[in-house]
Here is the input.
Amino acid sequence: KPIVFLNTNGFYDKLIGFFNQFVEENFARPHTLNLFYLASTPEDVIEYLKNGTIDVLFLDIDMQGTNGFELAKMLCEVHPDTVIIFVSAYEEFVYSSFEFCPFRFLRKAHLTKELDPTFEKVIERCVINNEVLEFNTTDGEITLRVKDIMYLEGQKNYFYIYTQQGKAYKCRGTMEAQQKRCEKYDFFRIH
Here is the structure.
């Protein structure tokens, strides 16, 4: 599941050159380059989606043919877990982008400053999205991806886990213990 750069008009050529140089100078292994897919057009991204999924998409908005918002809409329908990062020279698009729940909106004029912290946060997000938690339910042990857990609900000496897939699991334990266990994943407790 790579990171996809929609390289409109060669915008990311320098960044990709940097990654290539990293490999050439043995700062990274050659397979590191397999983490990235460089698409030249929105149609390349659509074609790529026929055979794979995308973890992270760096996406311009103002493009010929399919614009970034149209591509984001299609992607959200097909692969809602994809992390979308809009990159645009037009800051007035930021509010329109909220419809697609982007992870970030980077301004081309500030890309040098904004790209590094964005990479750090997106890697952190991808790691958390793939983390799992194990629970002892009344029916046995289960393992759930953190991102599949919608919420937990406490009832006396038990708590229930409700998932995105509509399933509920009953477990023995306290909400206090689960709160401590899950707080790093941005769960919060309502009393």
